[in-house]
Every structure is written in C-alpha cells, then in structure tokens.
Design goal:
Largest sheet: 7 strands, parallel
Strand order of the largest sheet: 1-4-5-6-7-8-9
CATH class: Alpha Beta
Structural class: alpha/beta
Mean pLDDT: 96
Oligomer: single chain
Number of domains: 1
Number of helices: 15
Number of strands: 9
Low-confidence stretches: none
Radius of gyration: 19 Å
CATH architecture: Alpha-Beta Barrel
Shape: globular
Order of helices and strands: HHHHEHEEHHHEHHEHEHEHEHEH
Length: 333
C-alpha cells in the first residue's frame, strides 16, 4: 500500500466523513505570492520550471507560508508542444516561435520525450523528499484538447492537423503521466481548461475516451478540471467509474452534488471573491460561504476538498489566503 501523507486529503479522496476538509488551490505557487515574486527577480519562468531545485523551491513556498494540505508540482502544461519543436518561451504568457506542422507530428519519438521531460521527474523527487511527511503531493498535465487549442491559437491552418495531432498529443501526455507516477504522488490532475469550449458531443467524442483510458490505467488517482464545467459535461464525467475527482465551479452547489456521485469534488469558492482588497468585505463574503458549508452536515460534505472554482489570481492579497485557510479550519471544526 502507498503511504498516507496528509490524512485529511486522503480521507477526502476516499470520501470519508470529516469536519475539516483539506485545502489546496490551483496556482497556489504563483504571481500573487511574495516568495514567488522574489524568485522571479532572479530567475526566468523557464528556469523556475526547468531547474528541479528551483521548481522544488517554488512548489514548497506556499506550503511553508500558508500550510496547505497538498503541494502541486510547479511546471507548465505546454512543454509537450515545445518538445514537438514549436519552441516555447514566455513573455510573460506562452509564445511559440514555430507553428505546429505535420512533420513535427510525424517525427515525434516518444523515447526522446522521456529524456526531455526528466526535469519534471527530478523536481518531483526533490519535492517529495523536501515536503513535510504530513503533506500530499499532486502532479499534473494538460489535456490533449487544451494543448491542441494552444498549438493552433496563432496558426488556425493547423486545425487541418486535428486528426493527426490528437493521438500524438495523447501519447505524449500519457508518457508524461507515467513519468510523474514514477514518483510518490498522491493524485495527478489533468488540466483541460479549453474543453469548456466544446459542445457536449465534442466533449464526449474527443475528451472522454482519453480521460477514461487514463482513469482506468491509474484507478482512483486521477483528477480532472475544466473551467466552469457544465451540468451535462459533469454528468458525463460521473460515468467514469475510476475517475477520482473533478473541480466544480460556483454555478454548482457542491454539497448538493456530492451525495449524487462517486467522485470527490473540489471547489468552489470564487477566485474573484478571493481578490477582494478590503478585509471586512472579504471576511463578509467568506463568512457567507462558510455559513453555506455549515448548513450541510459532515456526512453531506464527505469527499469535499475546499478550494476555488479556478486558480489563484495574481491580484489576490496573501492575507486572504491566510484568512480562507484559518476560517475554514476554525469554523468548520
């Protein structure tokens, strides 16, 4: 059996009843945090991702500062596109020097990708060895559809490559997932933001088969996120028996949904509310949210991970992160 690191996070994934939920946030290591800002004064974003010691340091920053229950690898979903030859850089957002081409897809060598992505493997090893033993560790990749959307964003003609590109991207992501699971991670998230643009039928045709394949390959170890998931897409995900977790946006009542699924559910405090600069106004919004949480008993909250509907925004006051964590843990005890 794999060791249990953070018992609260473990219990949430096992849907065990507990008064206080685990807390972690997407983009919890990032631009809002002074620890990250200080590192960015000395290093580029690429260095922070590609140098394992630096990736470890960035990842651990919010654990040390805010005492989240889980750390998530600091990296980027777009490195598979860089591997294909699109020459990725950041200024500050992603820029590709080359467009996706048929020859890039034809020449892809999966064994070479394993060597290319070793910086993630080493970073995860460093993070796990440096993490306190009561903290869980989360890995992640992008989803194939999301990577493809990034690849064609400034090159619509590449849309003609969809049928060829999708299986290649799936192979790369599957290998990326395999490499991350060589390390002692508790969960792997598939971040698939762009899938929210798909129709329900497109989601079923182009996203679900891959999610199902990976969930079956790593049963009860895969989480899935797409921004503001619709009710219909959520219903489709609920049919994947080995999928462990998904993230709900604020349009869903998470405590109403939990008893109706085998999934653990993460969310769903608004990341916009987390940016409120006036302390009293933020505390008022947070108190309203906690009152909603308390209106459901512990049994109804089983399987819940307290988090946001999306990632932490760069304008988020650090004080609000401290308050969110403190108030959740204090008032739900």
């Amino acid at each position: 059996m794999s060791p249990i690191y953070n018992h609260s996070f473990h219990n949430a994934l096992q849907r065990k009843e507990q008064a206080i939920p685990p807390i972690w946030m997407m983009r919890q290591a990032g631009r809002y945090h002074s620890h990250y800002q200080l590192l960015k004064q000395k290093y580029t974003f690429e260095q922070l991702c590609r140098e394992p010691d630096l990736a470890c340091e960035v990842t651990l920053g919010p654990i040390q500062e805010f005492d989240f229950d889980a750390a998530i690898l600091f990296s980027d979903i777009l490195f598979p596109l860089d591997f294909l030859g699109m020459e990725l850089s950041f200024s500050p957002g992603p820029i590709f020097e080359k467009n996706l081409t048929k020859s890039m897809l034809d020449q892809m060598q999966i064994s070479a990708f394993e060597e290319y992505i070793q910086f993630q493997h080493q970073a995860l090893q460093n993070i796990r060895s440096s993490l306190p033993p009561n903290k869980s560790l989360i890995g992640f990749t992008g989803g194939p559809i999301t990577l493809y959307h990034f690849a064609i964003r400034n090159n619509p003609i590449a849309d003609n490559l969809f049928n060829q590109a999708l299986p290649v991207l799936q192979k790369l992501i599957e290998k990326n997932i395999s490499i991350q699971f060589q390390n002692d991670i508790d969960l792997l998230m598939i971040f698939d933001t762009e899938a929210n643009q798909l129709t329900d039928q497109e989601f079923e045709d182009f996203c679900l088969p891959f999610i199902r394949q990976i969930a079956n390959q790593y049963p009860n170890q895969i989480g899935y996120f797409t921004k503001n998931i619709s009710a219909n897409k959520f219903e489709l995900l609920k049919k994947i028996s080995n999928l462990q977790l998904t993230v709900l946006g604020t349009q869903h009542n998470i405590f109403h949904e939990l008893p109706q699924t085998h999934l653990s559910l993460q969310g769903n405090f608004s990341n916009d509310l987390l940016t409120i600069s006036e302390k009293s106004d933020f505390l008022s919004a947070l108190e309203e949210y906690i009152d909603l949480c308390r209106s459901y008993d512990v049994r109804q909250r089983a399987g819940w991970i307290a988090s946001l509907d999306h990632g932490v925004q760069k304008i988020t006051p650090e004080t609000n992160i401290h308050l969110f964590i403190d108030q959740i843990r204090t008032k739900l005890a």
